[in-house]
Amino acid sequence: MNAPAPEVISLGCRLNIAESETIRTLIAGRDMVVVNSCAVTNAAVKQTRAAIRRARRARPGAQLVVTGCAAQIDPASFSAMPEVDRVIGNADKLSARAFEADEAVIVSDIMQVRETAPHLAASFSAHARAFVEVQNGCDHRCTFCAIPFGRGPSRSVPAGGVVERIAQLVDAGHGEIVLTGVDLTSYGHDLPGAPTLGLLVERILRHVPRLARLRLSSLDSIEIDDPLVDLITGEPRIMPHLHLSFQAGNDLILKRMKRRHSRAQAVATVARLKARRPALAIGADLIAGFPTEDEAMFADTLALIDDADIVHAHIFPFSPRAGTPAARMPQVDPVIARDRAERLRTAAARHKAAWLRTLVGTDQSVLVERPGARGHAGNFADVHLTVPQQPGDATRVVITGATDTHLIGTAA
């Protein structure tokens, strides 16, 4: 009788999704479940613990390994869970040796890591879209964020390795490539000659002409330089969708977060980009109830949804992370923070619904991502097709209708 197939449960960011595909190849043939954890909020850590318990109930005989940011930051608490057999840190989770070792806890000092490498997996079998890590870690210290302690210092993959990896994925049939990183716009400062993200993107497009769709994951708006602006607004193979790390819309809160941009700079960045590429869809992270936030400060963030034309909003109530400066600041009542987050979500949903209605009657290139009739347009609008298409196909679609959450379309 064949052993059960290994399983990787990925929580959190796109970088975790990319790394999970490598882990899947490393544990092939083992009766093992790996939970690749997230630590971006306290809620994410709770979700990780819940995923561990569900996995143990579903696979009582499997070896259960926990890795990822939550495991890196607090390995002792996960090792103490009765469901867990082994804890592996972020610096070790892409090494086959870590999954073969006998130690219960394998967690290296992430702050000493200075290199990263392209992923080993040949393809992303479950995804029409493939995620490629080009950068890891972060050198900034936003006051609310524990992720630098889970990911370590910023480090970049040399461009040659990135190009080779993407060419392999395109040859394997992936219709879209997403460049991922913890702080993507810091790409290259640690490499010889200090190449920028714009130079990397230009090199990818030049050397992989078969690549039809390239998407950029979360960007720090203050680091989007002129060459990158030119590519985003002038290169049709770059998808018309950017996710920007705004976090708040009030200048004093931004300073207390230790963000490096102002509200005016955020709005101006979006205006500059959309003036040159009007179809560009903007996504953003927003935090409600950051310490010291009053109602007037919150109103500035609420207004940012319209002022920066945010149609894909990721909204979180503030969650204090132990050891961060923000956890020691005067806290907003969690009930108020949750209420403000819900008000942000309501405003964001209203703005998105209005945007979706403007797309009725347009033609969109839709990447079908799983069997059936679902996919995403280049602007990342969710599209339901009237006739199923093959996964991985980028299909020209006429948009015939819109709901508050998605588009409806027919293949042209």
Query: Roughly how much helix do the residues carry, as a percent range?
Result: 25-40%
Biggest β-sheet, characterized? 5 strands, parallel
Taking strands numbered 1, 2, ... along the chain, how are they ordered across the largest sheet? 1-2-3-4-5
Q: N- to C-terminal separation?
A: 48 Å
- Provide the gyration radius in Å: 21 Å
Strand proportion, as a percent range, falls in 15-25%
Total DSSP E strands: 18
Low-confidence stretches: none
Helix and strand composition category: alpha/beta
> What's the average pLDDT?
90
Number of helices: 13
What's the overall geometry?
Answer: globular
SSE map:
Blueprint: E1 7-10, H1 14-26, E2 32-37, H2 42-58, E3 63-68, H3 69-73, H4 75-79, E4 86-88, H5 96-100, E5 105-106, E6 129-133, E7 135-136, H6 147-151, E8 155-156, H7 159-171, E9 176-180, H8 197-207, E10 214-216, H9 226-234, E11 241-247, H10 251-257, H11 263-276, E12 281-288, H12 295-307, E13 310-317, H13 334-358, E14 363-370, E15 372-377, E16 382-389, E17 394-402, E18 407-411
Parallel strand pairs: 1-2, 2-3, 3-4, 4-5, 6-9, 9-10, 11-12, 12-13, 16-18
Antiparallel strand pairs: 7-8, 14-15, 14-17, 15-16, 17-18
Written overview of the protein:
The protein is of the alpha/beta class and 412 residues long. The chain is 34% helix and 24% strand. It is built from 13 helices and 18 strands. Strands 1-2-3-4-5 form a five-stranded parallel β-sheet, sandwiched between helices. Strands 14-15-16-18-17 form a five-stranded mixed β-barrel. It has a three-stranded parallel β-sheet with strand order 6-9-10. Strand 9 (176-180), helix 8 (197-207) and strand 10 form a beta-alpha-beta unit. Helix 8 packs parallel to helix 9 and helix 12 (295-307) runs parallel beside helix 13. The longest helix has 25 residues, at 334-358. It is globular, with a radius of gyration of 21 Å. The mean pLDDT is 90.
